[in-house]
């Protein structure tokens, strides 16, 4: 029987809410503390790959999610300059067959709503909003518990209290995010497909958000100088000029999409370098521990995996500190491999010249099922119990 009966979770984002539900499933109570006075939409869309949706299904959330998301038929890699297809990975029904769970795309706010509704319906979970937590002592004074879980994101305050944890660092890339209504989208966008357009030093991802009846657009380009710290902001004229310059050689449909974007938000991409995630009875999860750039579309999935493994670890321990160390070791190996995949994707997506030509040739020779097999280690992952 576990010695952990209660946890305090700082942060009511995807990591914190999923952790509370996963712990409740193991009979462990959680009190979630969120500094925002109300939980509001952050960002736009996200992709939930089978390694994440499998965990959410185990938590009883699949029906609620299925009512809100789209399961795309394919993930398509496309040339940004010509719009010629380069490679296709089967998704939809093929994802369910191959990886035993669905691949869905939805609005980030929709996932948060589903998680929040489940938390509010769970007797072992409580939530307090409008309280800022700056350190472990304040958190445990507000809600005493056996374990403190820091799920407070890339700008985590609690990370600063964990010896050996490292601050977030600018990645050298900027992401622009905005929505394009189906009715205003170019014909090159398909409401049944996740599309990644590739080009030198930049790429653009588009996928449908059923509830918004719009495509979520994420355009990422390199920018060497670090912007001021922060999360999203409306880009000024010089920033919009740099965006246009980054995609200057691209197909007219893509350039028009960017030039006509309404209220795009500019997100400087920060990541957390490898550092310590645990200290006695405190553990960092999600972006607070290992924020990563979106080149593998695994940020939310890694937070969800964290939540599942942490709950499994704490449910069977008589020594919480040992359980947290074991959790960190196990997750570090998995996160490192996902980071490596993201780094490879960044290189491949942003390739130019002969490297890009070689990439296109290699992709053209790969069959869809062979490409899908490359994701078995990622999408077929099951949380160790």
UniProtKB/TrEMBL annotation:
Keyword annotations: FAD, Flavoprotein, Monooxygenase, Oxidoreductase
Gene3D superfamilies the UniProt entry points to: FAD/NAD(P)-binding domain
Q: What is the official name of this protein in its record?
A: NAD(P)-binding protein
Q: InterPro entries, from UniProt? A: FAD-bd, FAD-dep_Monooxygenase_BioMet, FAD/NAD-bd_sf
A molecular function annotated in GO for this UniProt entry is: FAD binding
Q: Is the keyword Membrane in the record?
A: no
Locate the FAD-binding domain: which residues? 7-338
User: Which cofactors go with this protein?
Assistant: FAD
Q: Which organism is it from?
A: Shinella zoogloeoides
Entry-linked Pfam families: FAD_binding_3
């Amino acid at each position: 029987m576990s010695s952990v009966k209660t946890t305090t979770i700082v942060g009511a984002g995807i990591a914190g809410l999923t952790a509370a539900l996963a712990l409740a499933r193991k009979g462990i109570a959680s009190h979630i503390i969120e500094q925002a006075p109300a939980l509001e939409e952050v960002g736009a869309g996200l992709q939930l790959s089978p390694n994440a949706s499998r965990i959410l299904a185990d938590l009883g959330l699949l029906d609620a999610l299925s009512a809100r998301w789209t399961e795309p038929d394919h993930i398509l890699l496309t040339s940004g300059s010509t719009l010629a297809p380069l490679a296709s990975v089967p998704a939809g029904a093929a994802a369910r067959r191959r990886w035993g769970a669905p691949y869905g795309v939805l609005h980030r706010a929709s996932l948060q709503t589903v998680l929040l509704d489940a938390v509010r319906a769970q007797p072992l979970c409580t939530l307090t909003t409008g309280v800022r937590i700056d350190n472990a002592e304040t958190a445990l004074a507000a809600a005493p518990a056996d374990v403190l879980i820091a799920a407070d994101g890339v700008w985590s305050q609690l990370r600063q209290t964990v010896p050996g944890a490292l601050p977030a660092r600018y990645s050298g890339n900027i992401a622009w995010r905005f929505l394009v209504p189906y009715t205003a989208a170019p014909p090159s966008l398909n409401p049944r497909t996740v599309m990644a357009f590739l080009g030198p030093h930049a790429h653009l991802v588009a996928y449908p958000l059923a509830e918004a009846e719009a495509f979520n657009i994420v355009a990422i380009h390199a920018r060497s100088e670090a912007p001021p710290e922060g999360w999203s902001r409306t880009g000024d004229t010089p920033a919009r000029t740099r965006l246009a310059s980054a995609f200057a050689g691209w197909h007219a449909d893509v350039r028009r999409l960017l030039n006509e974007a309404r209220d795009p938000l500019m997100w400087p991409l920060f990541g957390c370098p490898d550092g310590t995630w645990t200290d006695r009875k405190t553990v960092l999860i999600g972006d607070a521990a290992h924020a990563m750039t979106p080149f593998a579309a695994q940020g939310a999935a890694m937070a969800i995996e964290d939540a599942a493994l942490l709950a499994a670890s704490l449910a069977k321990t008589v020594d919480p500190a040992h359980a947290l160390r074991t959790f960190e070791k196990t997750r570090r190996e998995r996160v490192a491999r996902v980071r490596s995949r993201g780094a490879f994707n960044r290189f491949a997506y942003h390739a130019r010249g002969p490297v890009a030509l070689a990439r296109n040739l290699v992709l053209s020779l790969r069959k869809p099922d062979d490409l899908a097999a490359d994701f078995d280690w990622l999408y077929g992952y099951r949380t160790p119990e």
